[in-house]
Amino acid sequence: MTALNVLVVEDEDAIREMLGMILEQAEFTYQAVADTQHAQAVLGEITPDLILLDWMLPGVSGVEWARRLKKDKSLGEIPIIMLTARGEEEDKIRGLEFGADDYITKPFSPRELVARIKAVLRRSSKFGKSGHIELGGIALYNDEHRVTIAEQSVVLSPTEYRLLEFFLTHPDKVYSRGQLLDQVWGRGSFIEERTVDVHIRRLRKILSEHGREEMIQTVRGFGYRFSEQP
């Protein structure tokens, strides 16, 4: 099996070297660069399976670069884990809203980092179920890892894809945030329940661009329902 490839974007030499050692020990291949300009050059040559991206970088910041990547049709599906010293909850939420699939605060242990990388890669796996699912003009093609709304292709992050896939296969039922975490992120994940709200908001925004935002319904005091019925 080919080793999975990680792009590391971190401007501090010591941390960049440490990340390389952790990735090597976990049997990943990797490229490591100090800024987003060099990271963009790497993406011109390869498509990594995941990006470890520092929040604060010289030139274009990591969070701004993540936002740009997620708008790129050819690169928007690459999962991103933000690395930062920022520990405040609002900073975490902002990072997720700008396109990150997960968030890890420095300092962190090698075991936690590897666990998070593997969890995100599992959620973004291209080796999903065959066939396609369709509901309310939304079609998800597992064979091609592709989504269309009203026959127009849309770009989703790996987490948004998994969340939409779960909703499409479990319509008209109400799920709590905890249940969605178990089903979409996996049991034992490090993700906080509020993260569900962030990804729901991002997915709802994408659906709103195609007149489908009302399909994700908030059930006050419990969670969310996905339905064609108002």
Give the percentage of residues in beta strands.
15-25%
Rg from C-alpha positions? 18 Å
| CATH-scheme architecture of the largest domain | 3-Layer(aba) Sandwich
Quaternary organisation: single chain
Helical element count? 8
Share of residues in helices = 25-40%
Judging from the principal axes of the Cα atoms, what is the shape?
globular
Cα-to-Cα separation, first versus last residue: 46 Å
- The tally of beta strands, per DSSP, is 12
CATH fold type of the largest domain: Rossmann fold
**CATH superfamily assignment of the largest domain?**
Response regulator
**Low-pLDDT residue intervals, each spanning 5 or more residues:** 126-130
Kindly provide the name of the CATH class of the largest domain.
Answer: Alpha Beta
Subcellular location: Cytoplasm
DNA-binding region: 130-228
Modified residues (4-aspartylphosphate): 54
Domain Response regulatory: 5-121
Write a compact overview of the structure shown.
39% of the residues lie in helices and 22% in strands.
Structural notes for this entry:
Residues 5-121 form the Response regulatory domain. This is Phosphate regulon transcriptional regulatory protein PhoB. By secondary structure, the chain is an alpha/beta fold. It folds into 2 domains: 5-123, Response regulator (Rossmann fold, 3-Layer(aba) Sandwich), CATH 3.40.50.2300; 132-226, Orthogonal Bundle (Arc Repressor Mutant, subunit A). It is 39% helix and 22% strand. The chain contains 8 helices and 12 strands. Helix 1 links the parallel strand 1 and strand 2 (29-33). Helix 6 crosses helix 7 and helix 7 (177-185) crosses helix 8. The radius of gyration is 18 Å and the shape is globular.
